[in-house]
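Example (one chain per record):
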Amino acid sequence: MSSSAPRPLRHTALDAVHRALGATMTDFAGWDMPLRYGSERDEHIAVRTRAGLFDLSHMGEITVTGPQAAALLNHALVGNIASVGVGRARYTMICREDGGILDDLIVYRLAEAEAGSPRYMVVANASNAQVVLDALTERAAGFDAEVRDDRDDYALIAVQGPQSPGILASLTDADLDGLKYYAGLPGTVAGVPALIARTGYTGEDGFELFVAPADAEKLWQALTDAGADAGLVPCGLSCRDTLRLEAGMPLYGHELTTALTPFDAGLGRVVKFDKEGDFVGREALLAAAERAASQPPRVLVGLVAEGRRVPRAGYPVVAGGEVIGEVTSGAPSPTLGKPIAMAYVDAAHAAPGTPGVGVDIRGRHEPYEVVALPFYKRQK
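Predicted structure:
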């Protein structure tokens, strides 16, 4: 009887920095990542009011190039990637043949490769990077395109929050004012070559900087120094989760799974049936779209606590003594000052203000208000 030893945790290029800062580390999708540096509430509030600095180097970067790169991505993913302009990015998903979500992704169209060949970077969640790489590689059969695993070639540093444009502007001559949301441009930040993307997972304005791992420490320090007067603080995965929860952004493994289609998750808008060519999962997703239009199954809603008890993923949502749904994510909201949750509930109970809805927290039915998502939206 053989037993396989657990695989050692992977470390990002900033591992020594996190330890020097006294971070509490945690295993996240096989990576040793900073959970928090001090108070996760303080880190959360810093991002909402000033700026926060994140190491996201665990994310999975996959490069797709070749004459038929766009056609391959249109076939492999549910979105219309062929219509993405150079320097722009698109949120999309990769689904199974049965419509189940394998992962949600951001696809960047980069500057053309050699001989005018299109070049895309697909960014997958850390927990699904290998699954996405394998699926893209398999789906590339018959296309004149190359799928390349570039996870070891990038470190990813995010600066998020209302002060982030000013902090970054002090370190680069790139045109940040002209950089739209979900766009990216090559530039130099603090002397380091970077892909500067105006993307993020916090609900705030901010940037994600893709750089060589060897440059990560230099860039982190430069951003730390440039942000000192603006109140920038290092931030861990714990506040990243509460920030995305307040912003109503789904997390794979919670709001998104292989058991759900994009239509079940209320994200049917990312599926583009009118694009050229067939794509994986098309028939199943057409059926899912019809179901959602006629008789939606459960609907993703927000829940705000009337009391202080915090709901967790998997807790039943109840009404009239019946289970009507399940919590997918829950946490105290530093911005609202109350516990909040996202949950899938039966359509009959999904309207904001529906009375009599609660969460079963260890046998006690705690009252919750049904609200529309997101819980928080920044003022632009």
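Caption: The mean pLDDT is 96.
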